Amino acid sequence: MDYLTIRGERIPKIGFGTWRLSGPECYRAVLSALQLGYRHLDTAEMYANEAEVARAIADSRVSRQELFITTKVWHSRLRHDQLLQACNGSLRALLVEAIDLYLVHWPDSSTPIAETMGALNDLVRAGKVRHIGVSNFSVDEFAAAQAASSVPLFTDQVPMHVLNPQRRLLDFCIEHDIMLTAYRPLDKGQLGEHPQLRAIGARHGKSAAQVALRWLIQHPQVVAIPKSADPKRQRQNLEIFDFELTAEEMAELDRLAEGSSGHPRR
User: Under DSSP, is residue 70 helix (H, G, I), strand (E, B) or coil?
Assistant: First the structure.
């Protein structure tokens, strides 16, 4: 496993996403991922699977100190007291004393950003949250959130892959030492059949999906959180640290997204 270091924190460059995983399927998928070596887990209040994630962690017997756990508050609960209540609910569901990274899941113009950031800052001061950040924020929205927060924002979590490279946001993250967390890094599995990715993969003995993930983590500041309930694919998504794309291959893949807007919206 390779790691990204942000403000002294080492984050595994490949994490495990749990969007649309629920019930026993979520439990089995997270348990399998932990057994394979994943140590960076991503969930959310809206996913309604935090309890299953916690149960898988407990049954895996992986120590809490080895894990980096991210969860998110839904955009309808960004008022100060609502956000504190939501965080307390996530702490109870996840069976942890502190959340490593707590994110605003989506921006919401109906709630003043200063109020939301104030609540997140209060959670950090209370020791309930170690780092804070946002998800699905544009560069301008991120900058406004940071201006309203006395605590540095740790990440912006957005959809990012070779056809949606988030160039403006990536440049911003590199300049300001912010982690860019790439969700949907395989474009819902669509990149697995991409001909150029397959051709590059053939040179390295890797799949198109592995090339797509490798392209992401070779960028500064980027970690990726692919999701799969299939243990075989979970393993394949981890097997990207024994090869490296050449500068020419990176440039070839960069060109795939020419003309992409890169706006961080689902």
Answer: strand
Question: Going by DSSP bridges, is the β-strand pair 129-135/153-159 parallel, antiparallel, or unpaired?
Answer: parallel
Tell me the one-letter amino acid at 36. Answer: L
* Domain spans of the chain, in order of start: 3-257
Q: What are the pLDDT digits (tens) for 249-261?
A: 999 999 998 744 4
Which positions are annotated as active-site residues? 47
Local structure of 49: helix, strand or coil: coil
Tokens found for residue 174: 């590199």
Which numeric CATH code is attached to 3-257? 3.20.20.100
Closest CA to 98 of 77, 125, 127: 127
**Residues whose CB falls within 8 Å of the CB of residue 53, separated by 6 or more in sequence, listed in order:** 18, 26, 30, 41, 43, 69, 94
Q: Among 137, 169, 179, 171, which residue's Cα sits nearest to residue 266?
A: 137
pTM of the model: 0.95
Q: Which two tokens stand for residue 56?
A: 């898988």
